Amino acid sequence: MVAVFVGSIVIWGIYSIYTGSQRIFHEEHRISQAQLSARLAMEVIKNDLKRAGFMATPNVNFDPMVCQNVGGAGLVNVQSIVHVNGTAGMVYDQAGASVGIYRPDLNAGIAPDALTLAGNYITTQSFLAQVIRAGAGQIQLQSIQRLTLPGEDPTIPPPLPTDNEFTRMFPLNAYIRVVNPYGFMMFSRIQTVGAAATRTLTVNPPLPDASSASVMCGVHGFGEGSEVNVVNLVLYRIEVDPGDASGRKTDLVRWMVDANGATVAGTREIIAEYAVDFQVWFREDDPGTALIPQQPSIQQTIDVPPDGTVVLVAGGAEPPLDGSAAAHPEDMRVAIVRLSIRTAAEDPLFPWIARGAGQPLVRYDTEAGGVGAAHVRTIVAQVELPNIAFRNLRN
Fold first, then answer.
1. 167-to-252, 261, 265, 366 alpha-carbon distances in Å
2. ω before 205 within 30° of 0 (cis)?
3. In the chain, pLDDT over 70 holds for what percent of residues?
4. Which of 47, 122, 200, 392 has the maximum number of C-beta atoms within 10 A of its C-beta?
5. Which residue did the predictor score with more confidence, 301 or 214?
């Protein structure tokens, strides 16, 4: 009996060590998974931020190479960055409506931002125009050959794109950029897409027609030789998982958006599951003194400002990056992104402690009445905006 008693104690001890080790292993796995998700998501965000303004413009309202109102034609408003500052305790659903987060009384101080970027996010191709009927808003492209795909014989010319492929190349309601032979840009919306054989597009509003040979802006003659490319919009925001009726699970989602601001069906991507906070700030380029008119004063350290600060400016306040005529995304040179991901489940041995004002987000409550909390891992990155900086526009 003594041997049985001692053996039971030994077995119980071994079992306790084993179960404790298993619990620690699974919890560390969930934490490492959250950290890995944050890193992978940040790489996607950084790549998209770097492409903001690519084959587009930092700001159509200020770019001197954009034909804004030639011949009375008002072109569309394209800005490389549109930032929506978050509302405390609110995220989005798939329709874009604001919904409350789970237990905002406990998960306090969370106000995820939303971010829309404009650039060429689908392809780097541009196409030459064969004919442009400016007043009618009709563009006919020169012959288009589909690129050779992996596994195809490179010695055989690829066929022309199908009607379906041509429509995907030029999606309806996407922005279109036309660059005339003098380098001036015009932006409009794709209204209709013709057959691939005819390679025709109709845009609205119509493109401005040059009134005389002395006017370099607008469409000249038949528009032959002008370059045409699509400008896409990508939207980042945190949404409630539609498959979770409790509303506990939220994800960082990436959408393609059309020129009307509507999300494009079939383009929703989950960049990071269990994302709970997404914050973006910007640093701008200071014009400097009169002696050095373009002296940059960008701070290169990752100094994360408090929530609610949209743009960091040394000399004063800057209008919000809301897409209005008063916004100046062309001044932005650096973005600071902070992304927080929680573990999929609460850790009963990780006690819930209320988050104080200004304290980092390390715990997230997912179970009403639970004693534990989910671990939160946060990653911060500073991202340069090369396509915006390269243009070096000034308001």
1. 28, 19, 14, 44
2. yes
3. 79
4. 200
5. 214
Could you read off the pLDDT of 322-367 as tens digits, one per residue? 888 888 888 888 888 999 999 988 888 888 888 887 788 889 998 8
* CB within 8 Å of 352: residues ≥ 6 apart: 106, 363, 365, 370, 371, 372, 373
Of 73-82, 142-151, 219-228, 339-348, minimum mean pLDDT range: 142-151
Cβ atoms of 128 and 143 within 8 Å: the answer is: no
Helix (H) or strand (E) holding 237: strand 227-240
Q: Which long-range contacts (CB under 8 A, 24 or more apart) does 84-87 make?
A: 84/113, 84/114, 84/115, 84/116, 84/322, 85/111, 85/113, 85/308, 85/310, 85/320, 86/110, 86/111, 86/112, 86/113, 86/114, 86/278, 86/279, 86/307, 87/111
Rounded to 5 degrees, φ, ψ at 42 are: -65, -35
Single-letter amino acid, residue 181: P
Res. 286 pLDDT band, cuts 50 70 90: low
Task: Quickly list H helices, the chain.
Answer: 2-50, 163-169, 386-391
Sign of CA dihedral 73, 258, 191, 229: positive
Tally the residues of the chain: 395
Nearest to 78, CA basis, from 285, 232, 284, 236: 232
Q: What are phi and psi of 209, to 5 degrees?
A: -100, 130
- Say how far apart CA 262 and CA 246 lie, in whole Å: 26
- Residues 316 and 323: their CA atoms lie apart, in Å, by 20
pTM: 0.84
Whole-number average pLDDT of the chain: 82
**Residue, of 168 and 270, whose pLDDT is higher:** 270
Tokens 């990780």 — which residue?
350
Could you tell me the CA-to-CA distances from 140 to 46, 146, 240, 289 in Å, in that order? 35, 17, 43, 48
What phi and psi values does residue 96 have, to the nearest 5 degrees? Answer: 90, 5
Alpha helices in 75-219 (DSSP H): 163-169
Give the chain's end-to-end CA distance (angstroms, integer). 89
273: region left, alpha or beta (phi > 0 left; psi from -120 to 50 alpha) = beta
Contact (Cβ atoms closer than 8 angstroms) between residue 225 and residue 128: yes
